[in-house]
Amino acid sequence: MTHEGYHRFKSENGEEFGSFEVFEITSRSDNDPDELPPGWFWAVGFPGCQWDGGEPEGPFPTSLAAFDDARDCGWKGVHADAREV
Question: Distance between CA atoms of 55 and 36, rounded to whole angstroms?
Fold first, then answer.
């Protein structure tokens, strides 16, 4: 099972808020040193919009690891700005 796609952050008390995307980079070109390395990532944002929280977090070895990290960061307030979106 993959966790690729858009999900909601969940607060410590279970309240859902904001949105984040889990996605996979499978390869990279050797020509662009700023390109993300292969692996799973997550980023704050809503479907059809640009990411809100800056650079994506990752890479992670699995989609579940990226998903869990996003949910963990969201309820700890690391991405509290997602509550306002």
Answer: 10
In the predicted model, is pLDDT for residue 83 greater than 60? no
CA 17 to CA 7: how far, in whole Å?
9
Lookup: tokens for 2: 């993959």
Greatest extent of the chain over all pairs of C-alpha atoms, in Å: 45
Q: Which two tokens stand for residue 34?
A: 């700023």
The answer to whether residues 52 and 45 touch, using CB atoms and an 8 Å cutoff, is: yes
Q: Which helix (H) or strand (E) holds 71?
A: helix 63-75
Q: Is 68 exposed, middle or buried (0-12, 13-18, 19+ CB in 10 A)?
A: middle
Distance between CA atoms of 31 and 33, rounded to whole angstroms?
7
Query: Tens of pLDDT along 40-56?
Result: 999 988 887 777 767 89
